[in-house]
Design goal:
The relative contact order is 0.16. A hairpin with a 4-residue loop joins strand 10 and strand 11. This protein starts with 14 loop residues before the first strand and ends with a helix. The protein is built from 11 helices and 12 strands. It has a single domain, classed as Alpha-Beta Barrel (TIM Barrel). The structure holds S-adenosylmethionine and iron/sulfur cluster (SF4). Iron/sulfur cluster binds next to loops. Iron/sulfur cluster (SF4) binds next to loops.
């Protein structure tokens, strides 16, 4: 172990989110345009490079790794990467290895993920209606995802559902989705749409359903109690008395959560983003590729990057314009 990663605002960086591919088998309307262009394969970190990168972060104090994308489970041979991370769980250096997925490949990989040491998975699912699912994901099939969720639960993986709150789209489904999660003992978190990347003809402000309103909608149906619990991230939680469920709200646009931020994001090309809502980034790929025999330049580059972690982000919908809009897609940085 080397000295832990502490940023200029005294925040310990213990959580790394890694996007292992920018590609995806879905084209969700808030995430991508239908004719997305993807990065040339040579720009991607190889699985061996991803291992070296993550291992270095773990040696510098990262305790939680979340694998994301694009769709992480469409990256070829990704299970070998998961298996290679198991050694850090075994050594105790890594406390959690997890992923965020659209669920389309869970029917194939759930047992392998469990065997690699994964215990919890976030599955993104915005609607339980077949037709609406095809509409929002453009290319996805609900049945396949539901089969995947079944397989994951059977394998012993705990599931959290992430639903993007979309005005006029899944508003009316809130009780149904909530009930479905309760019946299956799955946690549920609602996410506000963020202004990330060009998505073609869709309008961000049309999609925006404030989580303040989502919470109010819960109060129409349930007895809601705020929980003080925080995870160092943007989620806030409530408990529903009727079902005992914990419901999360990720509200990066309406609340400031940056003071407790413990995370950084690595893209599939080896760029480190110190904040989801800022352009500040550091190229770690050169420090990795140019020095195959020593990790010192990579460690130095990581420390220099963490020293530049900004205090917070600038997203703002409050003036009915999308301020602080980011040109990159969520699938690039990994949501
Ligand atoms: N493909 C995987 C999935 O969908 O879970 C992992 C990557 S995806 C970019 C991660 C999360 O970002 C998903 O929960 C997705 O709903 C969310 N997301 C994508 N674009 C978003 C946006 N513009 N605003 C808010 N959430 C977004
Ligand atoms: Fe793919 Fe996830 Fe983006 Fe949907 S949200 S297009 S599943 S990366």
């Amino acid at each position: 172990m080397t000295a832990p990663l502490i940023d200029p605002f005294a925040r310990a960086i213990t959580y790394l989110r890694v996007s292992v591919t920018d590609r995806c088998d879905f084209r969700c309307v808030y995430c991508m345009s239908e004719n997305m262009s993807f990065l040339p394969k040579k720009d991607l970190l190889t699985l061996e490079e991803l291992d070296r990168m993550c291992t270095t972060f773990v040696q510098m104090g990262v305790e939680k790794l979340r694998i994301t994308g694009g769709e992480p489970l469409v990256r070829r041979n990704i299970m070998s990467f998961f298996r290679s991370m198991t050694r850090h769980l075994d050594s105790g250096a890594l406390k959690e290895l997890t992923l965020t997925t659209n669920g389309s490949q869970l029917h194939r990989f759930s047992d392998d993920l469990y065997a690699a040491g994964v215990r919890r998975v976030n599955v993104s699912l915005d609607t339980l209606d077949d037709e609406k699912f095809s509409q929002v994901t453009r290319w996805g099939r609900l049945k396949q995802v539901l089969t995947g969720i079944d397989a994951a639960q059977k394998a012993g993986l705990r599931i959290k559902i992430n639903a993007v709150a979309l005005k006029g789209f899944n508003e009316e489904e809130l009780p149904r989705i909530t009930q479905w999660c309760a019946e299956r003992d799955m946690d549920l978190t609602w996410i506000e749409v963020m202004p990330m990347g060009d998505i073609g003809n869709e309008d961000r402000l049309d999609q925006y359903w404030s989580l303040k309103d989502v919470r109010a909608e819960y109060e129409n149906h349930y007895d809601v109690t705020d929980l003080v619990e925080r995870t160092g991230g943007p989620a806030r939680y409530v408990r529903l008395a009727e079902t005992g469920q914990k419901i999360g709200f990720i509200t990066p646009l309406s609340h400031n959560f940056c003071e407790s931020c413990n995370r950084v994001r690595l893209t599939c090309t080896g760029e480190l983003f110190m904040c989801l809502g800022q352009e500040d980034r550091a190229d770690l790929r050169a420090a990795l590729r140019d020095y195959p025999d020593t990790n010192q330049p990579l460690e130095d580059a990581i420390r220099a990057a963490i020293n530049l972690k900004p205090k917070g982000h600038d997203f703002d919908y409050s003036r009915q314009v999308v301020d602080g809009k980011m040109s990159r897609h969520m699938s690039h940085t990994g949501g």
